[in-house]
UniProtKB/TrEMBL annotation:
One Gene Ontology term, aspect cellular component: cytosol
Domain Cyclic nucleotide-binding: 13-121
Highest rank taxon of the organism: Bacteria
Protein name: Crp/Fnr family transcriptional regulator
GO molecular function, one term: kinase activity
Source species of the chain: Amycolatopsis rubida
Length: 229
């Protein structure tokens, strides 16, 4: 399945839309380019716009009770952010930050709400997206209680393959340039625990890693690990 111009086994938000809706939506608003680590959306701010990614990757972040950064999600081309605050008219609940060079469409709230009213299939897909994000958040709260960190790490790596990876030479390369610290914040585990787990996965030829790069070589094996209880 396609994900805009990016990767992933699951379709992006844009590629779930009818071609007519996708063409009209991506013509709205204004195009903006951002450098790596630039803020895209800020927690606590009002929902005055939504952003649709055309190029590059972002991380969605929050802080835990000890003020440590937690990465809630990672996204790439074709994904949309900020829609919840626009639809509920409530403050944003997380930061969205560019991971690499990002190009996006920024669409003001009133224009986006009017577009949803006029295009019910897009409205339906927004509802599906919000339900999926709620389901994923609840699943991660449950999964983090598992005593087997290898299982939790496998599940989160598999999620990255689903949303932001490209198939190359029989493997799946994660396109989002996450540092090991960011990978640990995404799972979430300590860097030491993650390093140990990645070393084990490398020794079993399940993955290969480099500087800000991770490739899943043996996807069936990773899926098997993720399904262990």
């Amino acid at each position: 399945m396609e994900r805009g111009t990016g990767g992933g086994r699951k379709p992006s938000f844009l590629n779930r839309l009818p071609e007519r809706d996708k063409t009209r939506l991506t013509a709205l608003g204004s195009r903006q380019g951002l450098r790596p680590r630039a803020p895209v959306l800020a927690v606590g701010k009002p929902g005055v716009d939504v952003v649709v990614l055309e190029k590059g990757h972002v991380k969605v972040t929050s802080t835990d009770h000890e003020a440590r950064q937690v990465i809630l999600d990672v996204g790439g081309p074709g994904d949309i952010y900020g829609e919840a605050a626009v639809m509920t008219r409530l403050p944003r609940m997380a930061d969205v930050v560019a991971l690499d060079e990002v190009v996006l469409r920024r669409i003001d709230a009133e224009t986006f709400r009017r577009f949803l009213h006029e295009n019910p299939e897009t409205m339906y897909q927004i509802s599906v997206l919000q339900s999926e994000r709620l389901w994923n958040a609840q699943r991660e709260r449950t999964n983090t209680r598992t005593p087997d960190m290898a299982v939790q790490i496998a599940r989160r790596l598999l999620y990255l393959v689903d949303v932001c990876a490209s198939e190359r030479d029989g493997g799946w390369s994660v396109d989002a340039p996450l540092t090991q610290e960011e990978q640990a914040a995404f799972i979430p585990v300590s860097r030491g625990t993650l390093a140990k787990a990645l070393k084990q996965l490398r020794s079993e030829n399940v993955i290969a890693t480099g500087r800000r790069s991770l490739t899943v070589i043996d996807l069936p094996r990773l899926q098997s690990l993720a399904e262990m209880t």
